[in-house]
Give the backbone structure.
Amino acid sequence: MDTTAVPVPRVLVIGLDPFRVPGPWDPTPVADAVAVGMARFADAGVEVESCFFGLDGSDDIEAVVTEALERRPWEVVVVGGGVREPEDQLDLFERVINLVHRLAPGAAIAFNSTPSDTFDAAARWLGRPRSAPTKEAPPGSASVRVRPPCGDRGADEEPGTPFWAEQEEDPGQTP
């Protein structure tokens, strides 16, 4: 019987914090869709962290993204649509992609179409089925916890990760 532990894939999602994007709009539907999309990772047993930043001038975007990318090795980095669009944000998109290229050279780069299909974007590169369950997970399975997003924490807090799948770690594995 093989008792070798299979490492849990790690995915970083980089995107905009919908509550810190200026404009006369309601960010709640987007935030709700992000939460649904991120929960799908836990349902599939994939560890996920997010790095959300604002466009309201309150973040040093390059520092926020750099901190998240340097936190650990990533199998996949998903770059959200808010970073890629609109066209007048091309500079932002280029800066993020170049940071990913430089700081996570072993990671695949993926792009979602909507916040709710973020798992599908990562799954294309993880070799997992794209239709992760969306129903409530059974007791004892992976869960999703919420921490302050990177770039939105106090000086005394550990680096935050708004979402990730909680898994038992094998002490012999490298974090």
